[in-house]
Amino acid sequence: MIDALLALTEGAGPLVISFLTVFLRVGGIMLLLPGLGDRLIPTRVRLVAGFSLAVAITPTVTTPTTIPFQMILTEGLIGLAFGAVLRFLAQALLMAGMMAAQLTSLSQLFGTTEPSSAIGNVLNLAGLCLLMATGLPLYVIDLLVRSYDILPIGAIMPGSDVASWGVGRLSHAFALAFALAAPFALVAILYNMALGVINRAMPQLMVALVGAPAITGLTGVILMLAAPVILSTWHTAMVALLVDPISGGVP
């Protein structure tokens, strides 16, 4: 019996080391991964999701027999880098919602002191649901498997390349957010121009009181009409990034 347990331990040792090596990178990306890594999901569920991803990826990766301290740092940082660029693009929906709310005077809809908005929260939740429904875990597994071709186990990321990569992904996220908020910006410009003309024609009329219900209702209509296009555009950009995290979606 003891001999069997010793043989089992010796056989399971390399498998455990391989799993832990892969989990270092998976755990790093799970900290910032949209959807599976969001704070709305309980910690235990996120941990189980991370273990499941590591189990799925381990057979496809050739791992060393030991885990030195340097590898712990490099693998964790690689995972964080990939998770960060995905998080940048995921935040584009929230940024677009915040811009739309600021432009249409709905940024403090519920009296909060933070610039978060109902529009941003609705778009963010809808986008994450769309991403999960279209197979986010499978995209993440494919991304992680291919990441070992770009950055093998124990590889050190060049600082200048990582900085330019991160700045490029961040600028792309901001550009996408501005593009997604464009319908609301157009409505805000037309609304303010109309208020200016009315105020000039009838100075005695309190145009702000008349225009507030109009811009609120118009914003709801624009959101209903533009949300499918906004979510489809964002989802296409996110899938392109998952398929090619280095230059996906960036011209």
Quick overview:
The chain is built from 8 helices and no strands. The chain has 251 residues and is mostly helical.
Q: Helix and strand layout, with pairings?
A:
Blueprint (H helix, E strand, L loop, with lengths): L1 H29 L12 H15 L11 H35 L14 H16 L2 H15 L8 H22 L1 H20 L5 H37 L8
Helix pairs in contact: 1-2, 1-3, 3-4, 3-6, 3-7, 3-8, 4-8, 7-8
SSE succession: HHHHHHHH
Tally of helical segments: 8
Fraction in beta strands = under 5%
Q: Roughly how much helix do the residues carry, as a percent range?
A: over 70%
Q: Whole-number radius of gyration?
A: 24 Å
Write down how many β-strands occur, each being a DSSP E stretch of 2 or more residues: 0
CA-to-CA gap between the ends?
63 Å
Report the uncertain regions: 108-115
Mean pLDDT: 81
User: What does the overall shape look like?
Assistant: elongated
Report the biggest beta sheet as strand number plus sense, adding barrel if it closes: none
Quaternary organisation: single chain
Structural class: mainly alpha
Can you tell me the number of structural domains? 1
Transmembrane segments: 12-33, 45-65, 77-101, 122-141, 173-193, 205-231
Family: Belongs to the FliR/MopE/SpaR family.
InterPro entries: T3SS_IM_R
Membrane topology: Multi-pass membrane protein
